[in-house]
Structures are given as C-alpha cells and as structure tokens.
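Page 47, continued from p. 46.
Same chain as before, 219 aa.
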Amino acid sequence: MIQVKRFLRPIYAPIVRRFHREQALRRDHSRIRDEARRMMDAGRPVKIVIGAGQTRYDGWIATDTPAFDVRRREDWARLFPPQSIDRLLAEHVFEHLTRAEFTEFLLCARGYLSASGRIRIAVPDGNHPDSDYIERVRPGGSGAGAADHKVLYTSDLMADLLRGQGYHYELLEHFDARGRFHRRPWNAEDGYVGRSAEHDRRNKDGQLRFTSLIIDCWR
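Result:
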C-alpha cells in the first residue's frame, strides 16, 4: 500500500495543491465582494488598495493578485459593480507593469470609478536627484524588488500616459527634470503613501532620501 501511495503521489499531489489554491482564490473573491457590498450598503466610500501584500488600512479593502489582477477586465467585473469605487490606492505597484499593462489598468478602471472617484498612484521617481536612489529603483536595479521593475516613471511620462487615456490629474509630490522637489498638501485619508516626503522615516532629518512620484487622477 505504501508503495502504491508513493507511486500515486506525483499524480494526485498537484491536483490537491491546485484544489487548495482555487479554494483560497474563491474565498478571497468572496471577501472582496462582501466588503465592497457592506461599504455600499452602509453608504460609506468604497476604498481599494491594489497590490496590498500584507498592508492593511482601516476602511480600505486590501487586494492583490491573483484574486484581483488589475489588467484583467473579468476580475473587475467579478468583484465590483460599475461606477462603485470611490478611491483606488496603488503604492509602488505600477513600476512592476509594462506601459501597455498600465494603460490597460487605466482603461479598466474608468468604468468602475464613481463620479467622484479618484486613483492615487505612487511610483519611484525617475527625476530624483540622488544617483543612489535611482540605482536602487531603476529596472534591474539593486533595491528590493527592482529586478522586476519594468518602468522608471517621471512626472512628464506619467502625465502623458494619463492624458492619453483621458484622465485629469494632480501631481502631489515629485521632482522635476532639474531636480527640484514639488509638493502639494494631500490628505492621507484619500490614500496613505508610506514612501513619501512626510511619512518615510528615511526623511526624518529633512533630507529627502526616499520619496515617490505621487499623483491623483480621475476621469
């Protein structure tokens, strides 16, 4: 009997693993749908964190792949009613997508944003004047996760892509092409960005060692 189990294990083990993955995926889909529905029923804004990983914020629904792949129209349709999302937050997510994939996200998101809905995007800033910073965040760079980075955005590039998809936008934090830092007041209740001038501990002495290009956009 033991020999039979050893013989069959390579056959049934992948099936069992796939079954458990699918069960976990269905549970995650149900959690996201149920949380969004409860927010809508209570008259509260529906706030979604994209690519949340282990990050959790009160009043926000944490999502990540594979349960919510923002490039897949069927995932949006499965999880959210049209024009139901009031806030979308993506902190250091879109540098992991190609420009074409980011454009697909923008196309998908349009139909699910409410009339007052906004997207807050934070990505590494390609105009940061510190060469060590650029080395860490550039595609293939030395920083954590940079091996998977596809694009190093600047404010001009991000603005061009948003305009190209018909979005309005407001730059909240960024360096310009001359290395000058610009910042507008922004409300963390609309999307907390940890890697920002005010909130990143590496900037506590006033020197901007780690910031992000932060931009709000809406349809």
